[in-house]
Amino acid sequence: MSRGSNITRLGGFNRAVVFDAVRRSRFGISRVELVESTGLTAQTVSNIVRRLIEDQVIEEREPIFSPGRGKPRIPLVVRAATQVSVGVHLDPARLTCVVLDASGDLLHRSSTALPHTVTPDDAVGLIADCTHRSLVDAGVERDAVLGLGIAAPGPLDITTGTVINPPLLPGWERVALRSKVREATGLRVLLDKDVTAAATGEAWSRAHADRPSFIFVYVGAGIGAGIVMDGVILRGSHNNIGEIGDLIVGESLEEGGRRRVLTLGQACDPISVVTRAAQSGVVDADPSLIDVAAAEAYFTSICHRADTGDAECVEIVRGITRGLARGIAALVNLLDVQTVVMGGPAWNRIAHLALPQLPELIGARMVAPLSPLTLQAATEGEFTAARGGAAMVLDASLSPHASALLLV
Amino acid sequence: MSRGSNITRLGGFNRAVVFDAVRRSRFGISRVELVESTGLTAQTVSNIVRRLIEDQVIEEREPIFSPGRGKPRIPLVVRAATQVSVGVHLDPARLTCVVLDASGDLLHRSSTALPHTVTPDDAVGLIADCTHRSLVDAGVERDAVLGLGIAAPGPLDITTGTVINPPLLPGWERVALRSKVREATGLRVLLDKDVTAAATGEAWSRAHADRPSFIFVYVGAGIGAGIVMDGVILRGSHNNIGEIGDLIVGESLEEGGRRRVLTLGQACDPISVVTRAAQSGVVDADPSLIDVAAAEAYFTSICHRADTGDAECVEIVRGITRGLARGIAALVNLLDVQTVVMGGPAWNRIAHLALPQLPELIGARMVAPLSPLTLQAATEGEFTAARGGAAMVLDASLSPHASALLLV
Asked: Is ipTM beyond 0.90?
């Protein structure tokens, strides 16, 4: 059932709209410009700005006088360092951490390799440590921290803040990560799926675009997708959107000549790629002993050999590229979204080899090419998901949502 | 950039919220119940109701007295027949037409087989005819008609109202269907993709559910999907969401023993199924001469033979079921939506054979089974997409949208 709205909610919404416009302006925005961009009256803008200044969340910069114009332009800017958020990306192999100010600018970032099999308690301790150190290094006062956003591998139960049983974190069975980290840090904690957080981070860095639509494809120890449509980050019924590893992208020849279907996960993830390379003798390793860490090392060496022209390794990277093309074409056709953003550690290693071929391979499979495919690299490299975690906190705390107008 | 809101927009929005609550109530809703369901004050509800009655869009029913209670309950209902919409589904083989009142109740429906290769001009004439006849048969005054919604095969250019080049409508190259039908009928016309219209129709008939999420899978001359997430009908960047025919679902054995990947479209659509059946001698036809009409006839006979236990035909239907399961599992995993609604003429023919096996086959492939799969039949059978076309008109004309609060 739809809900009505009223003037109190309206006031809060308009305050958030004005604050958001100030926050997203790179070099400040004047009251006159705010009237134009928000559609509010000059009187309403003036009242809201006065209260935001009194509350110390925004401030005036030096007036700018233009020759021939009477009144100077006074840029309004966010007192960015007074409201700060932390983002942590828990990858099976690595912990990345960022601190953002309220403008979304990066104050600090760090990245640490994780031990081979990290236990939940170790992970909570490491998250608390890196959060504490990052805030100290960034010189941020504790009471300026809005919260901590964690990007973690799915599946997750978002309602209880629980990591259920991620395939690459053995022994993690229904870990209440959100409450454990809240206890360990004393901060307000948000938890979301890694690919959804990464998509949030990308949407954030595209705030200039009007309601962007894109598919974020993460290629790391596993493969997954985040989906942003018309500026809305899609989440699915249980916040577990984006499981694309089981899409069939071709077939593979097994030992003994048997043919089997090949999934996108098998085609692209380092463990599967390196295991096949070991089976066919391209790398000198026992195929049955390839774990996350070994896969990362051998995958890197395969990419280096492909760079030097090693024919077998070039063909392995081509196979990954063909698999990605087939899977991405299926997503583009299903979702009618033609902007694809690529990221993740495994992608970063093959990007320079795959990018020359990928757009044409995908384009050839597009059913209704109403607009050309745009293929982009994630703006923040390996920090995309951590940045997305921090951006989720800013979004939850500071952004206007039309749904906030509805009475609850 | 986010836009603010103001009191004029607020008034229009709240009026739409109240009207929508009255429209969706099956047996009327009182002012007291409206206060509860909309969250608006008694004074606001009372004012809006007075104006809606003055404008003759809603009316009061007989007061209902309850023993022991002072004031009688006065149900408010929509004067449904004063605001009516028409929906037409243009399928390559068939034209279906419905008339709905403002409550969404069916006033009239009809279905006509189309000639083998229908030209755009013929189609426009047939749409105008069936619209005119349906309104006359339903006894609807012309000025009560809000508009006509057309559900057509994609790809479409919605901004210009153009059907681009649907694979099963040969010779349709950029047909400006919306403006042609507007000229021929004098009505306001909306155009949308068939599967999106069908999803709209299904969402409409689930109005009791709070922000439903489901995937609508249409199996007809072609296969496609509509996606509803959190009550929002997803459309994609160009309103062409739902192309799933190219998803790979397995492999097929070609003549000469060559193996090829098998797509969902090839696994399920009647032309492909019947062509393979003709190649292997299961049906007695020239494989190179199977068109839409022939495919429909042979497909029906294959299903009848499967019903009687013919082993070859049972295996053909099983193959379709396996393909559907693989494709639907990919959609469920990607989108994290566990309710799947099946519809379309080809589905209707195999439903009783496929339904006993499909849920288990899909369930076995679900990556994160956080909630069990729910598989349902479309509520309106072959009229789903036409009903969706009419529902789109009601939605566009009558429903409250939170985005309507934003100043433009």
From this structure: no
